[in-house]
């Protein structure tokens, strides 16, 4: 049985008081209603992390992650936040390679490979994002595009290191657009990702790797998406900003 995971990506939303409020609501509702077998992660902005980790202390159903980390260990990198800093405040996960980081901040596969290394050195679990833009899908090149992203940023890892990585497939044309991939489009890409992992790490390791879907996932479509054999949960943007909607998604495994 693979892990089931739902992670909320808050992006650049919520002031600190609003973020603490949202985190408290998620923690309380998950405590009452959250299924025991689903790993729930919230990924607030950097400055919310330390107080939100404190709010989450004393319970283990909701875990805390960051949205990014530096490719460097430490030093003169103004404005950056290191994996060691995240670890020091009690963060357990970090999103790496979100398409917004790749698109708007020019992050390359090579940089992402380094960020994965920094995260693993600090025993953070990377949530590695991959996904194609619309024009690539229209050309029919989406499978190759996503497999190349995986090869370039993950295939230097050992099998033991890969075992700590969570993958999130997020087609760029579905992010924040309200246009979700169909259950069939998600399933066929997830199966392809798993087959690609198997070429490098073997079937057993590939079968154990959680692969989440992201892109306009919401309470009304999560159940259909999560019902697919290779879809192990979701990375949720917009709908994670509302505690009730987010927990409804957490409860969407059949
Ligand atoms: P969305 O974002 O759910 O708002 O489409 C998903 C993501 O970017 O992680």
Key terms for this structure?
12 helices; alpha/beta; globular; eight-stranded parallel barrel
Folded structure, characterized:
There is one protein chain. This protein has helices spanning 16-33, 49-55, 83-88, 99-104, 109-121, 134-139, 142-154, 159-162, 183-201, 203-208, 219-226, 243-250, and strands spanning 4-9, 38-43, 62-66, 93-96, 125-130, 166-169, 211-214, 233-236. The protein has one domain (4-253): Aldolase class I (TIM Barrel). Helix 1 packs parallel to helix 12 (243-250) and helix 5 (109-121) crosses helix 7 (142-154). The protein is an alpha/beta fold and 254 residues long. It has an 8-stranded parallel beta barrel, surrounded by 7 helices. The chain has 12 helices and 8 strands. 2-phosphoglycolic acid (PGA) is lined by residues 9, 170, 175-176, 214-217, 235-239.
Lay out the secondary structure:
Blueprint lengths: L3 E6 L6 H18 L4 E6 L5 H7 L6 E5 L16 H6 L4 E4 L2 H6 L4 H13 L3 E6 L3 H6 L2 H13 L4 H4 L3 E4 L13 H19 L1 H6 L2 E4 L4 H8 L6 E4 L6 H8 L4
Parallel strand pairs: 1-2, 1-8, 2-3, 3-4, 4-5, 5-6, 6-7, 7-8
Helix pairs in contact: 1-12, 5-7, 7-9, 11-12
2-phosphoglycolic acid binds next to β8.
């Amino acid at each position: 049985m693979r892990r089931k995971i739902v992670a909320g990506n808050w992006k650049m939303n919520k002031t600190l008081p609003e973020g603490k409020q949202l985190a408290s609501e998620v923690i309380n509702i998950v405590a009452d209603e959250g299924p025991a077998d689903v790993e729930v992660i919230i990924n607030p902005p950097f400055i919310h992390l330390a107080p939100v980790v404190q709010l989450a202390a004393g319970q283990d159903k909701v875990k805390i992650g960051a949205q990014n980390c530096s490719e460097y260990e430490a030093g003169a990198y103004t404005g950056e936040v290191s994996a060691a800093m995240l670890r020091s405040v009690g963060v357990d996960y970090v999103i790496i390679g979100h398409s917004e980081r790749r698109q708007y901040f020019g992050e390359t596969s090579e940089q992402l490979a380094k960020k994965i290394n920094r995260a693993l050195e600090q025993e953070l679990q990377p949530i590695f994002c991959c996904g194609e833009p619309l024009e690539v899908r229209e050309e029919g090149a989406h499978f190759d595009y996503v497999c190349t992203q995986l090869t370039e940023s993950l295939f230097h890892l050992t099998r033991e290191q890969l075992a700590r990585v969570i993958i999130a497939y997020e087609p760029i044309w579905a992010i924040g657009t309200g246009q979700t991939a169909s259950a069939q489009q998600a399933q066929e890409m997830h199966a392809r990702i798993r087959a690609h992992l198997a070429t490098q790490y073997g079937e057993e390791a590939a079968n154990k790797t959680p692969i989440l879907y992201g892109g306009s996932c919401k309470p009304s479509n999560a159940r259909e998406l999560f019902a697919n054999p290779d879809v192990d949960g979701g990375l949720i943007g917009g709908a994670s900003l509302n505690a009730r909607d987010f927990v409804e998604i957490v409860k969407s495994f059949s």
